[in-house]
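quick one, two chains, predict together pls
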Amino acid sequence: MNNPPTALQDQFVEMPQQKEAATLGMWTFLATEVLFFGAMFMSYITYRTAYPRAFALASHHTILLFGTINTAILLTSSLTMALAVQAAKESNSRWLFRFLVATVLFGVAFLGVKGLEYHQDIADHLWPGPHFKSGLPPEAQIFWVLYWIMTGVHALHVTVGIVLLSIMALMARRQKFSGAYYTPVENSGLYWHFVDVIWIFLYPLLYLIHRYAA
Amino acid sequence: MKTANAPKKMYIRIWIALLALLALTWGLSEVDLGPFNNVAALGISAAKTLLVVLFFMHVRYEPKLTWIFVSAGLIWLLIMVDLTMSDYVTRGNVRPTGQSWRHTGQIDPATPATRSPD
């Protein structure tokens, strides 16, 4: 009951089994996250099928440069995250700490760019409602509702990831991990990569519709 | 995977591939490919996802049981999308005839069939 987390818990036969159970648990959670975001992607597919032209026109008002920079930032943060887990596996807590801090900083940079973008979107009257930008078909507001909800919920996930990885960085600094035990780092990494994958789909769906016609 | 640096080099190669795919999806979006713009955009997203999931998330090296759990999320998502869209895209194509499924006689569109109390 009071075994330290690094040790084998009572309910497992051996360490590899314990680690496999933790990985399976994390993937089960991620499957629920797939369906959570899946409902929003479903709404997107339904409305885009119904109003393809309005969605294309609405999408031309997203700021492609910010979206592309943010995609590059998140992909790079996934690299530093993978390198952090590798450092943990090699019991290299100095580089584990450095790569975790780098990942957190990329996450903060992502939110910073997103904040600038939100600021400009609002100045551009792209918040749905009575003051919505004129000259667009009314269904364009549906696109922008989905834009705010999907990127908003995604940004929330990035924020949770930043908190999680900051805790991992502090624990790494206190030498809590080694090659024999780094499951929290590994599972936080899975969460971070998952958030990256969501953005990989948001990027073309929100920013790249009919770009050639813009 | 002979030397200690092998996984790190592999991760950096994957990262370069991911950035190349990002440039490709951005570039292709500026070209009119008709319906293939969507195919290209989602195909490239799927390719990026595969790289992240298989290598960064180590699924490639996980036991079969993990593969099943990973696939489960995707499969349920596809079921949701498939069933929802098979409804939405066929609305209006299927008209109720007003006939009871038990009805075997002549179809008279003028008078809706009355269900016999059975």
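Chain A has a mean pLDDT of 95.
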